[in-house]
Amino acid sequence: MYIEVLIYITLLIGYSIVSLSLILVFLAIFNKVRYKIKKYVFDENIRPYISVVTPAHNEADVIERTIKKFIQAYYPEDKKELIIVNDGSDDDTEKIVRKYAYKIIDSETGLATYKKQTQPLPINQNIVLVNRKIGGLGKAQVLNDAKKYAKGELIFAIDADIQLHRNSLLQAVRHFADERVGAVIGYISIVDKGDILTGFINWEFSIGQKITRVGYDTLGIHYIIPGGCGIFRKSIFKILGDYSSETLAEDTDMSFKLLTKTKKKVHFDPSVQVVADEPVQLKSLWNQRVRWARGNIEVTKKNIGLFGNIKYGKGVTIGYPFWLASVIMPLGFVLTATGFLTMNLLDISMEPFLFVSRIIAVMFVGAIAYTIISNKGKYWLHGIVSPGFPIIITMLSAILWADGIQGLMETVEYPEYTKATIITLLLWLLVPIPLTPAVVRLSTKFPKLANFIQLILFGYWSILIVSGIYAHYKELKGEERVWIKTIR
């Protein structure tokens, strides 16, 4: 009796975590209606001075492309600037930026020098190079340098591998006609390199922005104003202060400051488009996602005391459970899968959960279908297989048959194998937890084999879940915080 109650409680907790994330699907769909009935203040004609700031550490492969996209962006030349902070690079990053920069600032002394015309390239008087001799100390310090030298009323933070769309600046600034707006978030798409991994990352970014971010936008709250595409009023930093070096997610930390210390609004505008390079190796993806997850855990712990306090607004009352669910989603996955596995091994009835399972399955499949439709069919195959075959089979069975896998097995006329099938699927879900780190190490020598095992056999979602679990483990151990550059 006691074991049954314990397992039921475990499943309820797991289902609650998963359900909160899936509710964002309905909020995202409702957002289209909300935009029709809610008035937004726009002014297509305002042209405030805007500073685009870019940290750069060993970015020789991408930085020239980023500079050229800035130059090509539609905006008055005397109203925009690009500030590139060379963070102690030991490649040709500084050399490349110097070709274009008119003003070079020494970060340690603050002294500026101005370049004379010595080559056919035009001098761009709105491109500034800030040189830091010692680099690799974290992105927060670099961003603080950038905004210190920024002249703009608005600060548009992008990564060194981000390319602006020609209309990005024009689309972003129109929101700031409304004095209540403190920041704007743009839409990040991924450079399609034609490999299997970036296809899955593209899908992940699609579902993350078209559902999760739009869902948060419906609630009027945002927990991550991304460092890859976030636009702030510069004046708001008088309240928010500097970016923090005490977390691996300086953008999340700054977002929480804006959410809790000001009454300013944040808008997500998918028409503010940028394109980013993302990892093409599992190892690099793993390091990046562990860093992101650990940073978000750090920020959550830092702000957990605000939860439920109406003094700090709806971000920590109405919305905070949604954020918390996303941070502990790996826990929800493990609890749910382990609970069902234990129930089957001990022959505990699953009857109480069949109806709820069907609802969650409908929401789950609906999220994938909605993203495929809103994405106009792009990366549809990646979307379908990304959860992994065990989840796909389980969810479709829950939708098509009232008794789930039992109904599937009866349809194929093998009901006696129902228990064995369920246990196999659940083990298939849980096996990647201990094995994924080994596959990631394998990817450095055998990338194609590792991609097949991780992305096809285990499912793309498993690497996101396991990296989240690993991030929680590192945080519990209190491991030293180390910034690992993403290799693209």
Q: Can you offer a commentary on this structure?
A:
The structure is a single chain. With 488 residues, the chain is of the alpha/beta class. The chain has two domains: 2-28 and 320-430, no CATH class; 49-280, Spore Coat Polysaccharide Biosynthesis Protein SpsA, Chain A, CATH 3.90.550. It contains 18 helices and ten strands. The protein has helices spanning 2-37, 63-72, 93-100, 139-149, 168-173, 196-219, 237-240, 250-261, 282-303, 320-327, 329-345, 351-374, 380-385, 389-400, 405-411, 418-430, 432-442, 447-477; strands at 50-56, 80-87, 101-106, 112-114, 124-132, 154-157, 163-164, 181-190, 230-233, 265-276. A ten-stranded mixed beta sheet has the order 4-3-5-2-1-6-9-8-10-7, sandwiched between helices. Strand 3 (101-106) and strand 4 form a beta hairpin. The longest helix is centred in the N-terminal third of the chain and has 36 residues, at 2-37. It is globular.
